[in-house]
Every structure is written in structure tokens, then in C-alpha cells.
Amino acid sequence: MEANRLFSMLIGGTIGPVVILVTAIIMIWYAGAVYLNSSFLIDRYEKNNIEWTFSQLASDSWSMERPVLPSPHQIAKELKKTIWDKKITSPRSLVYHSRVTLSSAMVGFVMGTFLGIVLSVGIVYVAALDRTLMPWIITSQTIPILAIAPMIVVVLGSMGIIGLVPKAMISTYLCFFPVVVGMVKGLRSPSIILVDLMNSYSASKVEVFWKLRLPASLPYLFASLKVAIALSVVGAIVAELPAGAQGGLGARLLSGSYYGQTSLIWAALITASVISATLVTIVGRMERAVNNRMGLQI
Amino acid sequence: MAKSSSSKISESSTIDINNLFLTFETQSEPVHALSDINLKVEAGDFVSLIGPSGCGKTTLLRVIADLEKPTSGSITVEGKSTHQARLDKSYGYVFQTPALLPWRNIESNIHLPLEMSGYSKSEQKKLSQKYLSLVSLTGFEKKYPWQLSGGMQQRVSIARALSFDPDMLLMDEPFGALDEITRDRLNEELLRLWEQTQKTVVFVTHSIPEAVFLSSKIVVMSARPGKIIDVIDTNFPKDRNLDIRESKEFLKVSQLVREGLKEGHSDGS
Asked: Residue B85: is its pLDDT beyond 50?
């Protein structure tokens, strides 16, 4: 009876399954750390003629200075050291680097959203733009961002534009695309009957836009924004890689790989994904608030 | 000058259609949706357009509403072009589906045409109250469309069409998607509304009992090409109720309509 209740508590709620999954991932991670780090350790044992047991191998592989795959507690230690123990203004603090990345991601996100909305309105309302712009917009996204990011940074740098702006532009470059695609679909989503209804009132184009097309497009916009905001963080990090930037999670990843400090890389990766997840959650909350206000079913 | 022109309008018919043709150009061959339509609708008439699907009854309604342009022929609405009549908001249009905006509550859906006609907020509120009570939906102001049944939604759309007090109501099979019980009730309600508001109504349907029960004038149409076969006047008392459907007179008119439809059918094939 008790066991039954415990079991249903574990799989019934929302917390139970998450805890189980996270535990499983951590266990697999520890096993993976042993597996990936073992060849180096075994080499060393044999060179130094040390007798070794499996338990020794495991504990050694979880506490290496420069492991191939650091163990979760090493990453946790690194995170605590760089987030909690350092002053947040210090260049060794992940909070400092997060702030650098986040600020260019947010500027890029806002610019990308704005650009995306402007382009989609143009495409929906001007037939010529529909035919001419869309192919270019799609082409722009077939270019790998890793290839074009250094170009943008270098070209803008030679024009004296450095710092936040080039990085934000790469985020913009990634962000505007889902917004254009979603908003074009959203602005075109009202049924013919609703457009006829507006025509029967002799509504102007502006009235049709504000009273029909824009509100109808909001659900599409939020779906796009969730994709765009995650991409904005990716864009900011990618932009920090080529420039030899002094700050940002991308710069942190780069210096981690220079010095073979994998736990530093993983700490930055985890921070980046936590930031992205938080941002997507915030957009989700905004979506829910807007839906509630518009009386739409969720 | 103004006086003479206004008296002229009252003399002429509310809707006057002469030799009207409408042909849709399609990729395969032209479709003759409307062929040689001649029709006069007087102020206060309740005119039903009845015919098989594809006979152009909805197209004719859309031509009157200036949502479709005729290929040739003339049509005037209240003595004006259909375009001018649309700009003057001479009609309220009720579609096959309620066509309510899902993000607006009931009250604010009714405010939609009023906002665009420049009514003040308090006038909007007063009018939505008035017309919601006319369709017996007082108390549903703050509900959203998805919270209402199909019949209630269609009543909201009728209230919305009446809210800015147009002279005409154009209705395109408004009860076609509803069950028979709801349809009967709404038919009675619509008749009462017509009596109270004195509107001119043009009503598209493919139900004979509905057309006979509601109309003062029934226009029977046939398909391919869409043309008018017969115009039947009815003479039922204005305060009739559904019981009239059992009367001899009702059955006689129904028979006439049915024969007209049959004639159109044999012509067409």
C-alpha cells in the first residue's frame, strides 16, 4: 500500500519524473566520465607500475585535473567557484560573462524581432516584396552562422564598430528569420469570411491590420519568439568565439579549450543553457498572459 | 434640391437590379454565376433567395453587399451604387458562420463595427446592451465566443449586424449549420426582430419551410447559369408563429416554391 503510494507520487506529479530523469542522467554521466577518462588513467597506472582496482579508477577519473569529461560534482564545484565565490565584476566570474553575453543577445533579440515584424508586414502588404524578399530571407539562413559570424565581426571591426553591436547583429541575423516566417503566416491567418466582414464595414487597410491581422498573428508571433530568443543566445556566443573577445560565455568557452579546462567549458555551457531555458520560460509566461488577456483557450 | 432627391429615393426601390450578369473567369472555362438577374426589393421587404447549391444565391447577395462586382448590368441600393451603399454602411451582413473575433468578448465583438464608425465608448456600450437584449443574450457580455453555443454565436452576429442600425440586413444561410430545433427558434426570433426593427432583409437559404415561413417575397433560383425562375409573394400576418406551417396557405406556397425549383432543375439539365 505504502509502496504503491510512493510509486504513484514518483511518476504522477511533475517533480517526480523530472527527479528520476535527472538522477538517471547524472548516473550515466558518472559512468561516462569513468569510461572516457579511463584510457588516460590506465596508461599512467601502467607506466608507473601501479596496481589499480576499479574503485580507484573510478575515484581517480572523477577527480582529474583535466578530464576528457569532467564529473558532475567537478562542474558543480566550478560553477560554485565562478558564480558564487567570485565578485560579479571580476572577469573570472561567470555572472560577469553571462551579463556580457546576455546583453548582446537581448539587443539582438529586440532588433531581430523588430526587423522580422517590419519585413513580414512588408511581405504581406506589398506583393512585390513577397516575391523579391522571401527567397533572400531563406537564402540568408542557409549560410552557416559559424562561417558568416567572423566576417561580420571583422568587417564591422575594420569600420571601427566593435563591442556589443557586431555581436548583437549576429543575434539579429539568427532571430529575425523565425519571426518573419511566423508573422507572415500569422498575418495571413484570418479566414476569408473575417476579411469579408471587415470589408462589409468598409474598413481601411490600417483598421484591418490593427483590428484583425495583428491580433490574429499574436499566437504565431509567440511561437516564433520562443525560437528566436534561444537563437539570440546562440548567436551571441558564436559571435564571441572568433573575435578573441575579452568577455562573454563564448570567450569563456574559447579559453577553456585553450587550456584544456573542460570543467570550465562545461560550466559555461550549463550557464548558457540555463540562461536560454529561463528566457524561453519568460516568453512562455508572456504568451500565457497575453492569451489570458485575449480570452483565448490555451 | 436635397428634398427632391430624398423623395426620389423613397419612391425608388431599396434594391433595384436590372439585367445583371456575373461571370467568373476560371482556368478551364468561364462560370456563369449570375445570368440576367432582374429584381426589385422594396423597403421593409423580407426577401428570401432560394435555390440549389451553385445557383448563385450567395453570389447575388455578395453583389448587393459590394463584396463581388457584376460583369454587366446595373444595380442600385437605396438609389446609390453598391460601393457607395457599402461606404454609407447601409447594410449589416450575417455570414454562414458567426465570424466572431475569438480574442474579443461578446460585447467587444459587437463594438467592432461601432468603433470603426466612430461611436463613443458610452454609445458603444449602450448599443451593445440594447441589441444583446434584443437577441436575448443579456448577461453574456463578458463571455468569449468559444464559451457560447453555435446558435448563441449566430445571435451575437445578428446583434452585431444590427448594432449600427443599417437599413438592410443581408443574411447568407445564417442558420444553415444549426440543428433544426435551434433553427426553428431562431426563425421565430428573426421574424420578431424584423417586425420590431422594420429592416429590409435579404435572406439566402436552401430550406423551403424556412423561406416560406420568413419571407414576404420568395425568389426561386436555378443553377448553371444562376438565374431567377420565379418570384412568389406571400401574405402571412406579420405576427405569425411556427404553427402557421400546418396551415393550408403555407402548404400551398411551399408547393409553389417546390414546383419552381423543380422547373429550374429540369431547365438546367
From this structure: yes
CA neighbor of B39 nearest in space, from B23, B17, B71 = B17
d(CA A219, CA A186) in angstroms, rounded, equals 8
Q: Round to whole Å and give the CA distance between A196 and B92.
A: 12
The span from the CA of B94 to the CA of B77, in Å, is 18
Q: Which residues contact B269 (CB under 8 A, 6 or more apart)?
A: none
CA atoms lying within 13 Å on the CB side of residue B40: 6
Predicted local confidence at residue B260, as pLDDT: 87
Containing H/E element for A35?
helix A15-47
Residue of higher predicted confidence among A205 and A14: A205
Q: Which of A202, A212, A294 to mutate to test the interface with B (most CBs of B within 10 A)?
A: A202
Interface of A with B in 182-201 (CB under 8 A): 191, 193-194, 196-197, 199-201
Amino acid at B208: I
Contact B201, B45 (CB under 8 A): yes
What pLDDT does A243 receive?
A: 58
Which of A111-115, A291-295, B134-138 has the highest average model confidence (pLDDT)?
A: A111-115
How many angstroms separate the CA of residue A182 from the nearest CA in chain B? 19
Residues of A in contact with B101 (CB under 8 A): 194, 211-212, 215
Question: Scanning the structure block, which residue is given the C-alpha cell 402557421?
Answer: B244
DSSP B233-248: E----TT--GGGGGSH
Per-residue pLDDT tens over the stretch B177-234? 888 898 999 999 999 999 988 999 999 998 999 999 999 999 999 988 889 999 999 9
Q: Which of B80, B265, B246 is nearest to B167 (CA)?
A: B80
Q: Which of B89, B96, B144 sits opposite A295 (nearest CB)?
A: B144
B179 close to A (CB below 8 A): no
Q: What is the ipTM of this complex?
A: 0.89
Tell me: cis bond preceding B225? Omega within 30 of 0 counts: yes
pLDDT of residue B11: 55
Range in A144-158, A184-198, A282-296, B157-171 the model is least confident about = A144-158
Residue B99 contacts A, CB cutoff 8 Å: yes
Flag whether residue A296 sits within 8 Å of chain B, measured between CB atoms.
Answer: yes
